[in-house]
Design brief:
alpha+beta; 3-stranded mixed sheet; 26% strand; globular
C-alpha cells in the first residue's frame, strides 16, 4: 500500500460486509487531494460508525501513515 488511496481502499474493504459496492476515487484540488468514497447507504453507516467513531479512526490512521499529505475525505451515497 504505497498510496493513500490504496490504504483507504484496504481499510474500507476490511470494515464493511459487502466490499464490492465500495468505490474509492481521488482528484487534486489545488494543494489538497480529495478522496471520494462512493457506497450504498447501508454501507455508509458501517463506514461512519456509531457517533462517527470509525471514520475518525480511519482519518487518524491515514494522518499517521501520510503525515505530509493534505487530503479531504468525502463520503457519497
Amino acid at each position: 500500500m504505497s498510496t493513500i488511496q490504496e490504504t483507504l481502499d484496504y481499510i474500507l474493504k476490511a470494515i464493511v460486509t459487502d466490499s464490492s459496492s465500495i468505490k474509492v476515487s481521488d482528484h487534486q484540488e489545488g494543494e489538497v487531494l480529495v478522496l471520494e468514497v462512493e457506497a450504498a447507504p447501508e454501507i455508509i453507516g458501517q463506514i461512519i460508525g456509531k457517533e462517527g467513531k470509525i471514520i475518525k479512526s480511519i482519518r487518524t490512521i491515514l494522518n499517521l501513515s501520510f503525515p505530509n499529505l493534505r487530503y479531504s475525505l468525502d463520503i457519497k451515497g
